[in-house]
Specification:
The structure is a single chain. The protein is of the alpha+beta class. Strands 3-4-5-6 form a four-stranded antiparallel β-sheet, with helices on one face. Strands 1-2 form a two-stranded antiparallel sheet.
Length: 111
C-alpha cells in the first residue's frame, strides 16, 4: 500500500513539474514580435500540437505510463498585447482514472 501511494505522488509531481513545465517553456521561447517588420507571431496553439511522452516515473517491465500535453494559447488583450498559455498534462494512473495537472502563464510580445 505504501508503494502504491508513493508512486502516485511521484506521478503527480512528474506530470506537473516536468512534462507540463517543459511544454510551457517551449511556448515561452516562441517568437512573438509585434514591433518588427513584418510582424511575427508563432505563439499560436496550432504550432504546439498535443504531445505524448513517457511519464517520468520508475519503469519496470511493462508499467510504462504515457502522458499527453495539450497546449492552449488564448489572446487576453490586443491593447496592450497579452496572451495566456495553458498546458494540461493528463495521464492514467493504476486504474484509478485520468489525472490532469495544469500550468499556465501570461506572456507579452518580445520587445
Amino acid at each position: 500500500m505504501c508503494w502504491r501511494q508513493s508512486s502516485g505522488v511521484v506521478g503527480l509531481f512528474a506530470g506537473r513539474a516536468i512534462l507540463a513545465s517543459q511544454q510551457l517553456e517551449r511556448t515561452r521561447a516562441a517568437k512573438w514580435d509585434t514591433l518588427g517588420f513584418p510582424v511575427v507571431d508563432v505563439l499560436v496553439s496550432s504550432n504546439f500540437p498535443p504531445v505524448t511522452n513517457i511519464l517520468d516515473v520508475p519503469i519496470s517491465g511493462t508499467n510504462i505510463v504515457y502522458a499527453t500535453n495539450i497546449t492552449t494559447i488564448t489572446t487576453v488583450s490586443l491593447s496592450p498585447p497579452l496572451k495566456m498559455i495553458r498546458v494540461d498534462c493528463s495521464w492514467p494512473f493504476m486504474g484509478r482514472g485520468t489525472y490532469t495537472n495544469t500550468v499556465f502563464s501570461y506572456r507579452a510580445p518580445d520587445q
